[in-house]
Design a protein that fits this description.
Blueprint (H helix, E strand, L loop, with lengths): L1 E4 L14 H14 L3 E5 L12 H18 L4 E5 L3 H9 L4 E4 L9 H8 L3 E4 L17 H18 L7 E4 L8 H9 L1 H5 L6 E2 L5 H7 L8 H13 L4 E2 L4 H15 L11 H10 L7
Parallel strand pairs: 1-2, 2-3, 3-4, 4-5, 5-6, 7-8
Amino acid sequence: MGVINLTPDSFSDGGQIKGAGQALAVARRMVAQGATLLDLGAQSTRPGAEDIGAEAELARLLPALKLIRSALPEVLLSIDTFRAPVAAAALAEGADWLNDVSGGRLDPGLLPLAAASGCPLVLMHSRGDSRSMDGLTAYGDLVDEVIGELKEASDRARAAGVAASQLIWDPGLGFAKTEAQCLVLLDGLERLRAQGYPLLVGPSRKRFIGAVLNEPRPRARLWGTAAVVCKAIAAGADIVRVHDVGPIMQTARMADALWRKPADSPSGTGARARELQRISNGGEPQP
């Protein structure tokens, strides 16, 4: 999954994309480098980010979404939003997936919308919001609590009519988790994947990598990101969400060769695209 930030204040590359034309150019490059799924976000969710509201989010999102959808009809497009009105408008313009960093907490209206559309829905583990999450890092058994809270999110989604086959889990690296807790969570990914839902892991350029490497520059954390991607793939992750598609595509293919059987490898020739299409078409989650 390639990350396309349409925000001026993303922690990693805010302001790098100026306008729909540049967004399309980035999308084309990512697809050429191997991305099958593109994740478009117009509301920053970094710690301390300003909540801009649905109208401003749509003004950033829709021009790029429309242009990319028209130019790249074969590519799966995910929308990184926690707002039901934004999700509804995006689905109407041809978006394929919804990626909710709040797991359905911040706008419960997103859940029946996903149910009605039948689209894949990523439920990410988080607590609070951008301004409060750094103060919500108290856990007992971190991995058990993340699993429990993702189960609660899944139960809320199911109660709203979302099918189990639509759901994808994201452990939420860096969201209401300290740098040390991110490492603990990565060590427990197998336990999350064993719950039966497809697993998305998004480590790209994050501050816990910067803390380990003593590297304050997000764009200089490529190889730290690559190491985490290897760990995620070895633990059974189905999707990795990254900014640097080209080198991470190579990393993923090598990690598959080392840790996964060829039949299970989502980045083998054609297999990665087939797996994402299976999820998108409502295929049953596999333990």
